[in-house]
Amino acid sequence: MTEKTMEQRSVEWRKLRCGDATASRFGDVMTEPRSKVAKQNNEWSETARSYMLEKLGELITGIPADRFLSAPTRWGQEWESAAFEAARNAVAERFKGWSVQAPVGEFAYIHHPTEPGIGCSPDGVIGEDGLLELKCPANPSNHLRTVLSGQMPDKHIEQVQGSLWVTGRHWYMFGSFDPRVADAGINPLFLVRVERDEQYIKHELAPRVIRFRDWLMAEYERLTGGKAPF
């Protein structure tokens, strides 16, 4: 691991991932087009196309795209430090010998070892095989839905499995945190372990993300007439 400290969402971090397809947006890559014909022709969805254009703009200009921070996003960023500390303490208490390391240095952003232009930013790393992903839902109902289900919401599958693919790690500790439920006697932190799904990664996620990266590179070369950076 590098000795150089780098914080997530810092200028340096944003530049490092500029132009990359990142795990937090793999869900966009995996969306299907609406029409039956488009699906049969293996075309990209409008969501995936919008993401490709965002990445294309980053590659051409060298400037990381500025994304609008919605109220839910601002809420999540406001509480992420508290969520991380709660997770660190919970992991140490429940799983003796485990510790959660803050994502600094090399762990702040991780490139796929063999597929350039693809990476992820875990919220934390646990031991040699685990990662940590924390969500702070702006709406308490979403946190309570996760707690009652006892499972990670499906909408995070692409990000979590994608990060396991990029890092080569074997499991993820997924957490949902909402401090507002504590007054009712409910633990504000919910944690569940998610195992690596090798079949999903190998047969669905990885091929599609790689094809997305290749599509992005082809569009870059078509527009600029130069060799793609990846």
Would you give an account of this structure?
With 230 residues, the chain is of the alpha/beta class. The chain has one domain (11-224): Lambda Exonuclease, Chain A. It is 45% helix and 14% strand. The chain is built from eight helices and eight strands. The chain has a five-stranded mixed β-sheet with strand order 2-5-6-7-8, with helices on both faces. The radius of gyration is 18 Å and the shape is globular. The mean pLDDT is 90.
Q: How many domains would you count in the coordinates?
A: 1
CATH fold name, please?
A: Lambda Exonuclease, Chain A
| Largest sheet report | 5 strands, mixed
Q: Count the strands?
A: 8
Order of strands across the widest beta sheet?
2-5-6-7-8
Give average pLDDT, whole number: 90
- Radius of gyration over all CA atoms, rounded: 18 Å
Helix content: 40-55%
H and E order: HEHHHHEEEEEHHEEH
Percent of residues in beta strands: 5-15%
Dominant shape: globular
In CATH, the architecture is: Alpha-Beta Complex
Could you name the ranges where pLDDT drops below 50 across 5 or more consecutive residues?
Answer: none
